[in-house]
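Hello support,

Our group uses your service weekly, and this is the first time we've seen a run hang past the timeout. The protein is Xylose isomerase. I'm not sure whether the cause is the sequence or the server load. Input pasted verbatim:
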Amino acid sequence: MKTYFPKVDRIAYEGPDSRNPMAFRHYNPDEEVMGKPMREHLRFAVCFWHTFKGLGADPFGPGSMIREWLQPDDPMDAARETMHAAFEFFTKLGVEFWCFHDRDIAPEAGGDLAETNRRLDEIVDLAEQLQNDRGMKLLWGTTNAFSNRRFMAGASTNPSPEVFAWAGAQVKKAMELTHRLGGEGYVFWGGREGYETLLNTDLKRETDHLARFLHMAVDYKKKLGFKGPLYIEPKPKEPTKHQYDFDAQSVHGFLVKNGLDREFLLNIEANHATLAMHDFQHELEYAAANGMLGSVDANIGDLLLGWDTDQFPTSIYDATRAMYTILRSGGFTTGGLNFDAHVRRQSIDPEDLFYGHVAGMDTFARALKAAANMIADGVFADFVKQRYAGWDGEFGRRIENGELGFEELEAHVLEHGEPELQSGRQEMLEHRFNDYV
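Update from on-call engineer: The timeout came from a worker crash unrelated to the input. Re-ran successfully.
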């Protein structure tokens, strides 16, 4: 059988003293943390698109990488080779999950939907066989309804009902394939669901159409018998000036307005949080606080650049804050940590794909242990509880229960006078946080 990564053996755990960049120092899949193996906490997944189709292109030039699996002239031969390369990579890296867009795994046949679907079926036959052979699982599938020129003005928010229909047909097929492969969820990311200028945009009609589209997806999910959650992945901008799925809070509000909040969870991406001028933890915390946290795209953005750089996550601080929120919310059920990340333009060797993923997996393994220690010690939870202790007293409880109005609040102030203030202790808490990382 052809080998695409001959220089790499299966990545092993060698412990924190190892200096081998092709070994895990912190990710030991069988090590128990809070009564559960690391692999079950983290549920790592590799994305198909960046990892096997990304060639390092950027706004200033085409790709810089040559991938053996993409060399065949026949696009279906290339698709088959890429799938084999992917499963060799998954196996050697030691992950249990993968994710894909429909157009990543099989080439589109122009405007011939029937032939395009036939190609998808053929490649999914192969993926299903490889999943069974390698013991792999699909974390989630999704649809690329943004690259083809027909989607230049959006998919479900397009001014043309003909394009809306294409998007629906494409999502229908992708949902079927995800279901067939045992996918644990299905993601909607509005690649071009937004606008560039309001001079040519009917914003209300477009967002109404987006809601109608998502209702159709819910209906078809039930018809399929697909039991996994549907996710929406917030992103504020790029490629459009304004995306309708701007951030966790705006997506949640949109879902509530349209009666969809019980049908969807959120897939939070770190770099998208950055673009929305939020911390990664903020987006996770908002989603968790509202029962909407489903899955995570694990990457990081460059704070000095204004676009989605999708770098591998290597910040222990960011990852620890993220895992602290994830663990306190109950951890992953169907979701997980998908590395929606790509190697840098200058990292041109196939082995660099392993270096990036190993670094990301070790980062989150360290973060998991640090967050577990934070929870066990209770330093931060205890401080927060004490800071809000007044709300647990009779006066605070009566406000929260809706028993008091402005008149009662005024009477309370007249009786008790100026409130006693307390320090937020931010510097002390940040110092304590450093003890864990």
